[in-house]
Fold this sequence. Notes:
Elements: E1 10-17, H1 27-36, H2 47-68, H3 76-91, E2 98-105, H4 112-122, E3 126-131, H5 138-155, E4 161-163, H6 171-185, E5 194-201, H7 205-209, H8 214-229, E6 234-239, H9 252-261, E7 265-270, H10 278-294, E8 300-302, H11 310-322
Parallel strand pairs: 1-2, 1-3, 3-4, 5-6, 5-7, 7-8
Amino acid sequence: MPVHDKKEQKIAVILFNLGGPDNLKAVKPFLFNLFYDPAIIALKNPFRWLVAKILAAKKVPTAKEIYKKLGGKSPLLEQTMEQAVALENKLNEDAENSFKCFISMRYWHPFSYETAMDVKKFNPDKIILLPLYPQYSITTTGSSFIDWIKNIQKILPDVPYYAVRDYPEEEGFIEAHFEMIKAAIDQLDHPEEYRILYSAHGLPEKIIEAGDPYCDQIEQTCAAIQKKLGHPDHVICFQSRVGPLKWTEPYTDDEILRAGKDGKSIIIIPIAFVSEHSETLVELDIEYRELAIEAKVKDYIRIGAICCHPLYITALAKLTKNIMI
Length: 325
């Protein structure tokens, strides 16, 4: 019997990320969208709408000052676009299928419904949902998936989709971090004088207590890196807390102060961020560096986000293809 070639399929890959304001006027609506997310503030309307309006207005002045330091906008979309191009190129290397990558942001353009309309024009046979959050939380991946599925049911109701939920220990993701940290350590005369701070975005403790796996997965990521790295002096800590609620501890700023008291230098790693944005370029690079100087920390080295590291892109391609098997 004749052998028929397998029909090439068109696969849409949706990269999920937080999003960020593209100009200073967008800061307030961006913040409102963030606080209005029921995964962030679990109140029923009209109370959630009212609280989101109040919090957004309160945070605007500080947030605008942060984005002014970044040239008046978030760099996140441009960096995510670079990751999308790199991944699309990787996926289409000797591929049996045709892959096209799209970006869906949670709190600013392109929103999920805008992206879904573009995906509809592509007319895919399958859709892969791929978060740029390696560790799962309902506040990030979960919220993005809920929002996407709500819109896809209206715009693309008949296209099957597959979701990559998380990848805290994916080989290429871990190896990319290891390579960047090891390269920095190899430049040091006395690496034993440095304490590694694996800094992740914090969450209110009540979210973790409700069963969110985020902190456990942060620990999995750091344990996998440490297994390869073997640096004895290290700690997991959490940054970017806001408001009066108790957040996951220890806090990164407290760990910087403790390193100063212990006479330690610091290597700090954004372990939950795969792109550079305000939490890395301002909080880690400016605010925490200034705190380290005040705390008499001898040296403060910040490892970059893995962004388009070839090993990370390869890991994303592997995750994308494996989810369809």
